[in-house]
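If you are new to this repository, start here. Below is one unmodified record pulled from the training split, so you can see the exact layout before writing a loader.
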Amino acid sequence: MDYTQARKNMIDGQLTPNKIINAQLIDRFAKVPREYFVDVSFKKMAYRDNPVKISSDRYIFSPLVTAHMIQALETSTTDNVLVVAAGTGYSSSILCHMVNRVYGVENNLNLLEIGRRALLDAACKSVSILEGAPEKGLESKAPFSKILIDVPVEFVPQKLFEQLKNGGKLVAVERLNDTVSVIKVFSKDEQGKLSAKSLREVVTLPTHKCFTNDKGFEF
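And here is the target side for that same chain:
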């Protein structure tokens, strides 16, 4: 399979027709081998407009959902970014070279090991994925100017908002019902006040077990 052509087809057929306009982001999608971040049995499916299973209960989002989430972060080269539940590291690899530093936190040791190897293979030297409870973030490296939650959630834990800098953004996919979820952008202003807006609806995937109770931050 010609993966270089598959990446081009993904960009031309999925991303640019659907309001992905950040040139640096598009360049990263063109360069990062998505097939590195999925199981060998799913490599031929890596560039389809679908989520891809990476464990018994985990998926990486479709390319378009990942692109919209990262574009919504409005990153800069000075940002330190936290990727929560980083999985095999695909979103982290896209962010690499767009920001100053990427930290990931992941509690599935198998995915953590796969992700570390894939990031090395993709030459993502400014990305570190650490073992930890995703819902607790990464307090040792906080605060972060941008936070991406890379799994579907029913709520965003208050601890993650506490690790977000004033003036920062947090992006997550929040479950609405069994079929529909929404990409939600949370912004913290310079005084520390939070606001939220819905970006676009997406297909519901299984919610990460760390984000399935009702203890989140309500607006």
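Two things worth knowing about this chain: Helices lie at 3-15, 23-31, 63-73, 90-95, 109-121, 158-162. Strands lie at 52-55, 58-60, 80-84, 101-106, 127-131, 144-153, 164-175, 180-188, 194-203.
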